[in-house]
Amino acid sequence: MEKEGRTGRKVKCDRMLGFNISAKDSSTQARTSTVRTAHGDIPTPVFMPVGTQGSVKTLSPQDLQNADASIILANTYHLTIRPGEEIISKLGGLHKFMGWPKPILTDSGGYQVFSLPKLNKVTDEGVAFQSHIDGAPLFLSPESVVKIQQAFGNDIIMPLDQPVKFPAEKDSARAAMERSILWAQRSAKVEPLAGQYLFGIVQGSTYPDLRKECAERLTEINFPGYAIGGLSVGEPKDVMFETLAGFTGFLPQDKPRYLMGVGTPRDIIRAVALGVDMFDCILPTRVGRNGWAFTDNGIIRIRNAQYKDDPTPIDETCNCYCCKTFSRGYLRHLCNAEEILGITMISLHNIVYYQNVMARIRQSIIEGSFGEFLKRSEQWEK
What we know:
By secondary structure, the chain is of the alpha/beta class. The chain folds into two domains: about 1-280, Alpha-Beta Barrel (TIM Barrel), CATH 3.20.20; about 290-375, no CATH class. About 40% of the residues lie in helices and about 20% in strands. It has 15 helices and 19 strands. It has a five-stranded parallel β-sheet. Helix 8 (about 210-220) links the parallel strand 14 (about 200) and strand 15 (about 225-230). The N and C termini lie far apart (about 50 Å).
């Protein structure tokens, strides 16, 4: 299938990802849907636990399945550095390598362009990295990034892109946006694999006109889905949501929208109200390793002395193994004694909590009560 682009040139279009919207909220842009992949269906809005190096820290694939995770995320740059695409391919592809039977989305390594600025050099041809492990050279081009992810055999893949720090001068933001569009065009020309879907990534920093232009130009390529990159990179939350609200309407209604790297439960609910379907963030396991646990009543810092003899679970409304089994007092002891079980259990609770939030979001949209749920969530981080 081909489509006429703005230049009159025929642009190759990927085979469409199954995406069926089942319910919409009447007062916001929130919607529920099912994304269909070869490794299973994904109910949206969905949160993807982050397994950057092929593992969600401290948790097993069985833990994640028990938590009702329907898809997880891994990172192309990190897995290419170690162990490398050849080993992953030789050992049966990323699903078998990780022991994860459900869908996998891989980020391209574009975020490492932003996060490892002293270890890379960016040109229109791609990104030359020095490994953060041993300094070995690694060159990623738009084409090689797609082919590496094809070798992984996962379900949803991302093109190479260039986020910019906040604040960014407009000229710099435009240059990075133009390069990201160029890389997206080149990525889309790589012959796709059956059952694997390449998303476009919208860049443009916090400039509404750049975001709108980028969304419209990527839409011409007709990707199966669209990611929103370059947010949650240091800008105030109000700026992030103002930026997001300004251009999501320019993305196709019949394709999934993925907000990269966001965020707290409250952030996710606000973004769902703006029409976003997919999310990932390291927060549940990162703060879990610090002994912080998410609840509707705010974050519990389990290392605090007030919990030393507390017999209650982290969250009496939670049905996770941690909350059904252990007291706050015991978890505090484990964390302060630096026992791995403590951070594992709190990370597990956090992942289950995020999945429960997503289930409540979906149910509220179906029942027509999402607006009330959105309002109640305003108190969660106060």
